[in-house]
Amino acid sequence: MQKLRAFFVFLLMLWFLEMLLFGPVMDDFISLIKMEAVISYNKTCLLMSGIPMLSYFVLLTFFYLFSEKIFKHLQKLMDSSYFILFMIIPIPVGYISTIIIPFILMANSYTNCPQENLSSYYVKDVALCEKIKRRDLF
Prior knowledge:
By secondary structure, the protein is mainly alpha-helical. It has a three-stranded antiparallel β-sheet with strand order 1-3-2. It has helices at 2-22, 24-34, 44-48, 51-66, 68-78, 81-88, 90-107, and strands at residues 38-40, 111-112, 121-123. A hairpin with an 8-residue loop joins strand 2 and strand 3.
């Protein structure tokens, strides 16, 4: 029964990792990096900062399900302080960047769309707000 629960947790974490790496969150992140005319920014950096930790837990769950020997080695790796820093440091960096990036966008002549349903979009020209087709995560 415990392996069955671990399997469902594995599938859920794998789905969430796939959404982060190949879904709208990554599209938003790429538009932010490229500084396109229309940027969709809705806490993208904070979501992206969880990728190292989520990846580790996906691997840990996978090896728990299929290989006990590798699972024990991964647990020992988790005890390494450098590895913990690699997983933990991106989260405060993502949180701080979530606070700072809207100010950086405003300093680079981006404006927030005035429509309430498009509040997560930043554009160079307000006229572009009317051409935006809204994408939602869910």
